[in-house]
DNA sequence: ATAGCCTTGATC
DNA sequence: GATCAAGGCTAT
């Protein structure tokens, strides 16, 4: 009844890898129509394959699109209208002048996650435009095979979507269009099993819009927020997808500066506002190690008794389908076993500052908190929250790091905004390779959480380049000293535009690079050209990070990602 | 081949 | 009967 990939020889030129989506299992509520490839409304694919691609070139945004988000303007202009969020793709004003609530259909103006065109409805699993719907249908129905003449990482937008069908179809799959929603028997009309999902999604989006509206009202009322039109009540309201962006940008700066308490009230969203989290971070930092600062949910939302209980119970919960992390999830200190020569004091100190156990505890605590008492959580949203937490610990790590801590806040921000995603990808490689981080964990509510997706920034098809790089690192005997040195190299990037103290960044970068060079020579003389080979991997990590960022940004623009997070601030900051 | 519009039909 | 997400048709 299922026409699987093997039968689709024409699509066979695209490589397959494991990818588990909920199995469709055939008809369900789909009525049988007989004949053809199987039952009525039966899926064309029962077990959706993943078309893996290798990313290399960084996707570029269309030069014709104006990214008006101005971080500096946000800092110095409380009104924030100079930031021009209205100009950012995906940011549609949900309220027209004079209107109050986004109840009407016109209020939900979304953009196609594939090409950015106007959405015409739910098609094959999610909201897309009419053209991408048709494109997806034609591709699957006619078993089309495309090839990319470039690097399989072409940028897809409304004006360029026709240029590379390979990358367009790849993006369709990346954003979650479902092969199994294309009917093998071509039966018209009716509904499929995704109906309830669409309904839930609609309700969730509507709820988010309302919450965002309330948040904006609250912020306006409580912090003297005035709109660019003078706050007279008839202003065009900023998008529901990021109502707190201007404040959040400020928050990044405060975060680095060891902020004072903000008077902002808490967000109506279930997750704490970045400012609140940063506040909690400072309180916590006084008494514990730097990584333990990142437990926003525990500090802000969970009664103390429950936190204690959770920490106590943590060890018996994780993960059920992999070796107990408590024992396997730590490495034996710097350069154990391998180092024959003298390790530079700098690298030694770098490694000593790593606290992977805390990273792990934070990760599992957050996963546990977020699923506490819930039968089902949105796994993408959960992933965003974990990434957000990782970002906080990253900021905290950087803030306490040599070279970086000597810089002015503006330079610190620029460096972080440029390197955060690269470092997240690298971090994940490190935790998988050196701490036995499993690719999947079973949450307390029974759901399976794809830990690997954290390293892929949510893009399943990046698994192939990710593991390929990991394998090469393994061959190079990549160790924690290499990891932390490379992380410094990513952070201390003297090529970042607009640095005031480029000289200091350059010096730090060069010193780390020299130390890593010496370390490779003295500790791994048997690995041919290890240092240079390590450096060649940096742009490849960057390529993964860029694609991940684009994916997250698109999800965010469509309201599919939590707002008021450091993660989203970072995504916006780079697009200014 | 693309994409806008049309037709269909199960579900509400 | 209204809705809306499937597939179909057709001008470009």
TrEMBL record:
Residues 262-274 have a biased composition (Low complexity). Its main location: nucleus. GO terms for cellular component: RNA polymerase II transcription regulator complex. GO terms for biological process: hormone-mediated signaling pathway; tissue development. SUPFAM superfamilies: Glucocorticoid receptor-like (DNA-binding domain), Nuclear receptor ligand-binding domain. Gene3D superfamilies: Erythroid Transcription Factor GATA-1, subunit A (3.30.50.10), Retinoid X Receptor (1.10.565.10). A phospholipid derivative binds at residue 555. Residues 342-574 form the NR LBD domain. Residues 109-184 form the Nuclear receptor domain. One of its GO terms (molecular function) is zinc ion binding. InterPro entries: NHR-like_dom_sf (IPR035500), NR5-like (IPR016355), Nucl_hrmn_rcpt_lig-bd (IPR000536), Nuclear_hrmn_rcpt (IPR001723), Znf_hrmn_rcpt (IPR001628), Znf_NHR/GATA (IPR013088). Keywords: DNA-binding, Metal-binding, Nucleus, Receptor, Transcription, Transcription regulation, Zinc, Zinc-finger. It is found in: Nucleus. Residues 15-24, 327-340 have a biased composition (Polar residues). Residues 15-40, 260-282, 317-340 are annotated as: Disordered. Belongs to the nuclear hormone receptor family. NR5 subfamily. This is Nuclear hormone receptor FTZ-F1. It comes from Nezara viridula (Southern green stink bug). The lineage of its organism: Eukaryota, Metazoa, Ecdysozoa, Arthropoda, Hexapoda.
């Amino acid at each position: 009844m299922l026409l699987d990939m093997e039968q689709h020889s024409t699509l066979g030129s695209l490589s397959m890898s494991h990818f588990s989506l909920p199995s469709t299992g055939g008809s369900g509520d789909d009525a049988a129509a007989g004949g053809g490839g199987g039952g009525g409304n039966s899926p064309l694919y029962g077990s959706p394959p993943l078309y893996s691609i290798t990313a290399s070139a960084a996707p570029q945004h269309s030069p014709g699109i104006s990214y008006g988000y101005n971080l500096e303007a946000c800092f110095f202009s409380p009104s924030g209208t100079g930031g021009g969020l209205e100009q950012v793709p995906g940011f549609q004003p949900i309220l027209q002048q004079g209107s109050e609530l986004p109840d009407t259909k016109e209020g939900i103006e979304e953009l196609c996650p594939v090409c950015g065109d106007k959405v015409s409805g739910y098609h094959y699993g999610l909201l897309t435009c009419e053209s991408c719907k048709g494109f997806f249908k034609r591709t699957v129905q006619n078993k089309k095979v495309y090839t990319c003449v470039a690097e399989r990482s072409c940028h897809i937008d409304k004006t360029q979507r026709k240029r590379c069908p390979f990358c367009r179809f790849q993006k369709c799959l990346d954003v979650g269009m479902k092969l199994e929603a294309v009917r093998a028997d071509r039966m018209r009309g009716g509904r499929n099993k995704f109906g309830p999902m669409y309904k839930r999604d609609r309700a969730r989006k509507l709820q988010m819009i309302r919450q965002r509206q309330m948040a904006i009202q609250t912020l306006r009322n409580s912090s003297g927020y005035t709109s660019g039109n003078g706050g007279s009540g008839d202003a065009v309201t900023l998008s529901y997808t990021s109502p707190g962006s201007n404040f959040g940008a400020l928050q990044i700066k405060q975060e680095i500066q060891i902020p004072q308490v903000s008077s902002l009230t808490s967000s109506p969203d279930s997750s704490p506002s970045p400012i609140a989290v940063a506040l909690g971070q400072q309180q916590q930092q006084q008494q514990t190690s730097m990584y333990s600062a990142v437990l926003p949910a525990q500090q802000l939302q969970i009664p103390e008794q429950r936190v204690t209980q959770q920490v106590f119970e943590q060890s018996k919960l994780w993960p059920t389908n992999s070796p107990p992390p408590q024992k396997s999830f730590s490495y034996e200190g710097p350069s154990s076993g391998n180092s024959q020569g003298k390790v530079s004091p700098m690298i030694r100190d770098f490694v000593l500052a790593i606290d992977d156990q805390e990273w792990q505890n934070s990760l599992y605590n957050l996963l546990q908190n977020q699923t506490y008492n819930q039968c089902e959580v949105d796994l993408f949203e959960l992933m965003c929250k974990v990434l957000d937490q990782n970002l906080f610990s990253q900021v905290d790590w950087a803030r306490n790091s040599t070279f970086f801590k000597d810089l002015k806040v503006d330079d610190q921000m620029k460096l972080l905004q440029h390197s955060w995603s690269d470092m997240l990808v690298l971090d994940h490689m490190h935790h998988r390779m050196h701490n036995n981080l499993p690719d999947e964990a079973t949450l307390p509510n029974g759901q399976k959480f794809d830990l690997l997706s954290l390293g892929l920034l949510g893009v399943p098809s990046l698994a192939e380049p990710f593991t390929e790089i990991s394998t090469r690192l393994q061959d190079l005997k990549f160790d924690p000293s290499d990891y932390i040195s490379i992380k410094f190299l990513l952070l201390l990037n003297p090529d970042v535009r607009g640095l005031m103290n480029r000289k200091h960044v350059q010096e730090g970068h060069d010193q780390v690079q020299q130390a890593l060079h010496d370390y490779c020579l003295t500790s791994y003389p048997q690995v041919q050209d290890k240092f240079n080979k390590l450096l060649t991997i940096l742009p490849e990590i960057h390529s993964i990070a860029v694609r991940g960022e684009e994916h997250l940004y698109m999800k965010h623009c469509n309201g599919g990602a939590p707002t008021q997070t450091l993660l989203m601030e970072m995504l916006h900051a780079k697009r200014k």
